Amino acid sequence: MDKYLFYPGCSMESNAKAYSESLLAVCEPLGLKLEEINDWNCCGATEYLGVSLTPAYALIARNLALAYNQSNGTQTIVAPCSACYLNLAKCDYYMQERPELGVNVNDALAAGGLHYDAGSLSIRHFLDVLVNDVGLETLKSKVVRPLKGVRVAPYLGCMVPRPDYDHRWSNPEYPNELDRVLKVIGAEVIDFPLKTHCCGGHMTQIGPQTAYELIYRLISAADQYHADVMATLCPMCQMNIDAYQGETNRHKGSDIQMPIVFFTQLVGLALGLDPKDLGFGREFISTKRVLDRIGLEMPEPVEVAPVTKPRKKQEGLPMPRMPREAGDEEVNP
Amino acid sequence: MSQPIHLFDSDDPQERIGVYVCHCGTNIAGIVDVEEVRDWAGQRLKDRGVVVSRDYKFMCSSLGQEMIEKDIKDLGLTRVVVAACSPHLHEQTFRTAAQRGGLNPYLTELVSIREQVSWVHTDKNAATDKAKAVVSGGVERVIKNQPLEPLHVPINEATLVVGGGIAGIQAALEIADGGYPVFMVEREPSIGGHMAQFDKTFPTLDCAACILTPRMVSVGTHPHINLFTWSEVESVSGYVGNFTVTIRKKARFVNEELCTGCGICQEKCPKKIIDEIYEAGLGYRKAVYTPFPQAVPKYPVIDKPNCTYFLKGTCKACEKFCPTNAIDFNQKDELITIQVGNIILATGYDLFDPRRIPHYGYGRLANVYTSLEFERLSNAAGPTNGEIVLRDGKTKPKSVGVIHCVGSRDRNYNNYCSAICCMQSLKFAHLVHERTGATVYNFYIDIRTPAKAYDEFYQRVLEEGTLFVRGRVAEVTDAARKPEEEGRLIIQVEDTLAGKQRRIPVDMVILSAGLEPRKDAKATAHTFGISCSADGWFIEKHPKLDPVSTMTEGIFIAGCVTGPKDIPATVSQGAAAAARVMGRIQQKEILLEPVRASVNPDQCSGCRICNNLCPFNAITFIEDRMVTEINPALCQGCGTCVAACPAGAISGTGFSNEQILRQIDGLLMLNLEYMSEAAELVPA
After folding, report:
1. What is the CATH number of the domain that holds B119?
2. Is B303 inside any structural domain?
3. The domain that contains B326 carries what CATH number?
4. Which of B142, B267, B386, B487 is deepest in the core (most CB within 10 A)?
């Protein structure tokens, strides 16, 4: 069984529960063992790097340092979330490219008794592992319920293939890995021209008009291509297109119902797993028509009661304290 | 000044050495104190044999050279050291000057105090000291120089031209018209190359076939040209003047003695195949075919992997209908060995494959064409008889977008400019305009129209109403956002002149794809023993002053093998290579630089380490004596084997260990002078 260090990221515990559930569910039949990094912290998403560079990188590097200490037998971190994957990869890359940054970050980490030598870990996205380590042949051999007749629009969003630091993708502007996975599990895959276009990201919060426009482009294109469902690998994309679709329709005067799921949910269906265990029913735009096509019952929608989680008790090592120095004001590279 | 300290016991024969220090205007004199170097050499190196040291503003001028000649005669100089520019520039000049003065030219040493001193330093004192060290090294070395004689090699009059495109055709005709025999090898069934695929040629818009086919016919019928089509060069051995070349003549399955080229076999052949080469994938041919009606030679070939008879064992329709019984299914590949004196490589280019840029949609979106596809589309002899239509084969486009620099000037693909795409795109715009009346957009980064009548053509296309949008296209998509975009191709581009993003819906997109080296260029370079750049273009001997020669004597290059070129430049190079070859042939024999490596057979252990290192295939292993030998006519004196030999059995003439060590000693002698106080502590 191939073992990987696993960096889930915050969204997997909240809005992308379906991703988390389906991802963990498909690992077993695919022979993947994910070992969660103990005491991991937020990657800072897209915002922190725009505020202050050194602390933002230190925040990310803490995860790399923890992972490295934990890396018995594997040097590979797998991240399912686009932003997490990009941040981890970016931090590793820039710590190598700019030795000064590496020194500053390690100064900060030293406060928590940690250290990370850039380049010691390989940071990969789950899709990359699925295509290149598990392999499409193996995946194909495990399919028991091909998604026959399900028209899927593969949608990657911006951050996984670009920038392609390690040249892992077939083409950073128009990658075909997701298409190939979906084809192997029997779905009818659309050559979706907007597969790497932006979903609006955090514009839903700061400039909703812009976000609605971008979301509308995606869902209307998927609709034009008669897609039953969009498949993504990014929690942000999934949330924007799913949760803001109603608002977008209201804004544009349209009535598009385009469900969007995580590709691991579809892989899980093909592997014969129960839709309920794959997080189906958590979405706003119902996936009933997808399940209908392959003759499955829609699970009861999951009622999510708002919960306030108790603050995590301070365990493990203390967080690094940041030296305040000139140059902290520098902006994102 | 303290007493000079010498490392050498002076048992060298006393030479009479002249040292000449060049100012090179201010190139050298601006940084190096030339007079001081002169005086220093005259005094300090006196006991090393320097009898005269002079400086001059331009040593390479006639007056400078005459100064050296005069000194050789008047003062009886036996060695000359010139401190000036790099030997790449003027070594030959000063060797010739010494020869005129009556000295063996190889007793002259040119040391560089320009490229390696004045141009790379700013501290005048330090540079002057370094120049002295360099002169000192030159003096020590020249003492050990040996008089050498160039090698005389007779030249075979025949020439091999590889590649039957317009460059090869031009070269072959020039040489054959000069009365010398030519062998031409072309791997396709017909000569003609890419030019035979084109419809019109820019900027004059003359028909490509009309100007090309007469030349093809000349090649086919020329008494001095021996044409091998459907053939490839298998191996090359020998050296300038005396190459032995093995050609694989692939089985044509058609007897050329009997075939009349009537074409009935092609008519009767039931198997239709997409023609990926000549029709650029846009049209069909049969399994037995000539690529186009004007093909030279007229004999067809049978495409064995696609022929029904070879696949299933039955059919033979061509054989049944052939009126002269020319079809021969039992034909085998032939290996033919020829002797030639010179070789011209004109193997051309491949088109950049735009599938590598998936967001431009080629291969995904039906109405995205490559430039070569469009050439076939607009060609009157092409699959649509020159009708410019969409992939459905009937609809005329109402608007067409031409995208420049596809795969060129792009660090993701090729950094270089492909040189022909601007003019080609303008030509496309004109043809679309003329034949369909459609609106044409050109999406460009810069318009580059530098050659004769090129910019006038650009003006003409502008006046015809072609719309130019400056900006690199982001993507070509069929995802419509507005009703007027539905069912069309949308070009998303930043218009850098208007400073805004634009979406322009069109019916057809033409990708003006760049030119790339042939996929097998590196293998070809290896076969012929020449070098190619990292991306695969063949490297010229000098990019400006010797553009059709290679570092390997006797191998010339012409056309797009060295980089993208338009037809006029390609033809010029074909002619230039021919002129160089004919110049060589006229000399009857060639003088080769005597700077050569040689193996001392007593020291050679037969380890064969050097055998595969030689870039010029000059090293052979003699099995029965278990030693390696170097062919002096093939050796270019690069020194790779000399450095590699673990037994020290190989030495280079003009670069003996003794010469090199002496030069190093000379360079360091100066340092010892500065360390004189410390040196007093160390017994000399």
Report:
1. 3.40.50
2. yes
3. 3.30.70
4. B142
CATH of domain A2-125: 1.20.1050.140
Q: Most B CBs within 10 Å: which of A173, A194, A196, as the mutation test of the B interface?
A: A173
Q: Whole-angstrom Cα distance, residue A53 to residue A48?
A: 8
A176 and B364 within 8 Å at the Cβ level: the answer is no
Residues of A in contact with B358 (CB under 8 A): 171, 173-174, 176
Under a CB-based contact definition with an 8 Å cutoff, are residues B344 and B578 in contact? Answer: yes
Domains identified in chain B, total number:
3
Q: What is the Cβ-side half-sphere exposure of residue B232, based on CA atoms within 13 angstroms? A: 11
Query: B143: domain range?
Result: 17-148
A171 touches chain B (CB under 8 A): yes
Which CATH number belongs to the domain containing residue B480 in this structure?
3.50.50.60
Q: Residue A214 CB: number of other CB atoms within 10 A?
A: 20
Which residues in chain B have their CB less than 8 angstroms from residue A220's CB? 481
pLDDT value, residue A48? 87
Confirm whether B287 is domain-assigned: yes
Among B491, B516, B541, give the residue marking a domain's end. B516
pLDDT tens for each residue of B250-271 = 999 999 999 999 999 999 999 9
Query: Looking at beta carbons, which residues of chain B come within 8 Å of A194?
Result: 477, 479
Do residues B403 and B361 touch, judged by C-beta distance below 8 A? no
What sign does the dihedral B508-B512-B513-B518 (CA atoms) show? positive
Q: What is the structure's pLDDT at A51?
A: 85
Please indicate whether, in this complex, the C-beta atoms of B358 and A217 are within 8 angstroms of each other.
Answer: no
pLDDT in tens, B543-560: 899 999 998 889 999 999
Please give, rounded to a whole number of angstroms, the shortest distance from the CA of A175 to a CA of chain B.
8
Q: Among the three residues B485, B516, B547, which one is the final residue of a domain in this structure?
A: B516
Closest Cβ opposite residue B477 in set A171, A176, A193: A193
Q: Which of B356, B357, B364 sits opposite A191 (nearest CB)?
A: B364
Question: Above pLDDT 70, what percent of chain B?
Answer: 96
Of all residues in chain A, the one with the smallest CA distance to B361 is A193
Burial B5-17 (b: 16+ CB within 10 A, else e): eeeeeeeeeebbb
pLDDT in tens, B177-193: 999 999 999 999 999 99
Q: Which pLDDT score, from 0 to 100, does residue B53 have? A: 96
What residues of B are in contact with residue A224 (Cβ under 8 Å)? 479-480
CB atoms within 10 A of CB B138: 28
List the one residue out of B390, B413, B412, B414 whose CA is nearest residue B400: B390
| pLDDT tens string B612-656 | 888 778 899 999 989 999 988 788 888 899 989 998 899 888 888
**Same domain, residue pair B375 and B469:** yes
Distance from CA of A45 to the nearest CA of B (A): 27
Q: What is the pTM of this model?
A: 0.77
Domain ranges of chain A: 2-125, 142-293
Residues B461 and B488 in one domain: yes
Helix (H) / strand (E) element for B505: namely: strand B500-506
| ipTM, interface predicted TM-score of the complex | 0.72
**B479 at interface of A, judged by CB pairs closer than 8 A:** yes
Question: What is the token pair recorded at A250?
Answer: 């209201």
B359 vs chain A: nearest CA distance in angstroms? Answer: 6
The predicted pLDDT at position B11 comes to: 59
Q: What is the mean pLDDT of residues B222-232?
A: 97
Q: How many CA atoms lie within 13 A of A42 on its CB side?
A: 12
Mean of pLDDT values over B651-675: 80
Give the residue from B278, B539, B540, B508 showing the smallest Cα distance to B396. B508
Q: Which residues of A touch B361 (CB under 8 A)?
A: 193
Task: Identify whether B475 is part of a domain.
Answer: yes
Per-residue pLDDT, B637:
85
Class in CATH terms, A142-293: alpha beta
Q: Which residues of chain A have pLDDT under 50?
A: 329-333
Instruction: Name the minimum distance, in Å, from the CA of A176 to any CA of chain B.
Output: 10
Q: Would you call A173 an interface residue with chain B, using a CB distance cutoff of 8 Å?
A: yes
